[in-house]
Amino acid sequence: MGANLAISTADFEKEVVQSDLPVLVDFWATWCGPCIAIAPHIEAIAHELDGKAKVFKVDVDSDGDLAGRFGVMSIPALIVFKGGLEVDRMVGAAPKDQIKAMLSRHV
After folding, report:
1. 3-state secondary structure at position 57
2. What angle (nearest 5°) sits at the alpha carbon of residue 66, between those of residues 103 and 15?
3. What pTM was estimated for this model as a whole?
């Protein structure tokens, strides 16, 4: 992972729930092949929508409580938050355009 998009439970409230911008959170794990496959897409979207949306990654192994809080059962799980609430969700690997379109709907 080039850019450090990782977020922990400690920062989640401030960076995601209280964000004025829409936030895409990628729930992933190092052992998840599809998660690794879409990682470059997630980083590219973070750069392309910088200033319009935030993008973070949550490692379900180190921050499993967050995964549980949002009912993440399969990964990768991509959840869009706006105004502190979940407004969209995608489970499984998808093409970059599809992931970006999901987030862009809320920008």
Report:
1. strand
2. 55
3. 0.95
DSSP state of 15: I
Q: What is the pLDDT of residues 50-89, one digit of tens each?
A: 999 999 999 999 999 999 999 999 999 999 999 999 999 9
Average pLDDT, the chain: 95
Query: CA torsion sign, 32 to 30 to 67 to 53?
Result: negative
Q: Alpha-carbon torsion 75, 1, 59, 53, what sign?
A: negative
SS3 (DSSP) at 54 = strand
The torsion angles phi and psi of 36, rounded to 5 degrees, stand at: -65, -40
Question: Catalytic residue positions?
Answer: 32, 35
Per the CB < 8 A criterion, the answer to whether 23 and 54 are in contact is yes
Peptide bond into 76 cis (omega under 30): yes
Q: How many CB atoms lie within 10 A of CB 25?
A: 26
